[in-house]
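About this split. The held-out portion is used to measure sequence recovery: a designer receives only the structure tokens and must propose an amino acid at every position. Recovery is the fraction of positions where the proposal matches the reference. Here is one held-out target exactly as it appears in the evaluation file.
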């Protein structure tokens, strides 16, 4: 199966870059508002056994994990998709599209075990979405060195309780 991913729509500038990104499997998402078109496209891909790489924070975090957006949990609930947590480090120096195509430095990818979220019947409120989003992000955080875990550092959370 082909891996596809969401990328900020502002990257899709000009016909060459647009084609290049789409060839790599990127689909544009407008991060300035709720992008129904991208949401429906992603949901359709997941419902038809597609593989989508989603960056739940909505951006590349600079140094440590930041609060994720709840859209990832909603997509999983609506599609029954299995989640494969992946953590990537060493990308701090990648600042533009050409560095993505020709990266330098050591990039490390840690892959966790697949898991599913519990299926919720009925209305899913924002508190449930936040809880499910946190479950996803905590699974990603344990794949990272502690200094990158940010708001999802489980060990610090446990010490604060």
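Reference sequence for scoring:
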């Amino acid at each position: 199966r082909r891996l596809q991913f969401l990328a900020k729509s502002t990257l899709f500038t000009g016909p060459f870059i647009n084609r290049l990104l789409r060839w790599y499997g990127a689909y544009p998402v407008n991060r300035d508002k709720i992008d129904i078109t991208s949401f429906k496209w992603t949901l359709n891909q997941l419902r038809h056994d597609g593989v989508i790489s989603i960056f739940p924070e909505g951006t590349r975090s600079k140094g440590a994990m930041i609060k994720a957006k709840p859209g990832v949990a909603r997509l999983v609930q609506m599609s029954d998709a299995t989640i494969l947590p992946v953590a990537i480090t060493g990308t701090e120096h990648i600042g533009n599209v050409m560095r993505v195509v020709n990266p330098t430095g050591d990039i490390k990818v840690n892959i966790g075990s697949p898991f599913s979220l519990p299926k919720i019947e009925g209305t899913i409120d924002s508190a449930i979405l936040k809880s499910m989003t946190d479950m996803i992000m905590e699974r990603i955080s344990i794949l990272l060195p502690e200094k990158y875990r940010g708001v999802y550092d489980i060990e610090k959370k446990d010490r604060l309780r």
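Annotator remark: Helices lie at 14-23, 36-47, 71-79, 97-101, 126-141, 154-160.
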